[in-house]
From TrEMBL:
Gene3D superfamilies for the chain: 3.40.1350.10
GO molecular function, one term: nucleic acid binding
UniProt protein name: UPF0102 protein SAMN02745752_00270
InterPro entries: Restrct_endonuc-II-like, tRNA_endonuc-like_dom_sf, UPF0102_YraN-like
Keywords from the UniProt entry: Endonuclease, Hydrolase, Nuclease
KW Cell inner membrane (keyword) present: no
Family: Belongs to the UPF0102 family.
Length: 123
């Protein structure tokens, strides 16, 4: 039973990331990479906004209890994202300007992920 819950959370997470990616593409950003993983952690989306590289954390919450999706990006999560981004940047020949954004999502009336908020320079 636990595996089914994990699989459904993974599917919902993938759907949320796809919705967030489409949302950002529709707002002029360009996709660089999805689900970048390294020993430091994972970055959901890496996008380009003009000359700026944008590391995007995607958060879906079915409820606003406990502060909702944005509040779930706590200090420890921010540190993991910063370390993973530093690792990613260390692989590049030149260091572009960069920022950390967050896209929060909640379920629509059918339960599908819907973008609530795009937080630029989230931390």
């Amino acid at each position: 039973m636990k595996d089914q819950g994990k699989i459904s959370r993974q599917i919902i997470g993938q759907q949320a990331e796809a919705v967030a990616c489409s949302y950002l593409l529709n707002h002029g950003l360009q996709l660089v990479e999805k689900n970048f993983r390294c020993r430091m952690g994972e970055i959901d989306l890496i996008m380009r906004d003009g000359q700026q590289l944008v590391f995007v954390e995607v958060r879906f919450r079915s409820s606003s209890a406990y502060g909702g999706a944005a509040a779930s990006i706590n200090h420890n999560k921010q540190l993991k994202l910063q370390r993973a981004a530093a690792f990613y940047l260390g692989r590049l020949n030149t260091q572009p300007a960069c920022r950390f954004d967050a896209v929060t999502l909640s379920p629509d009336s059918s339960g599908n992920p819907l973008c609530d908020n795009w937080i630029k320079n989230a931390f």
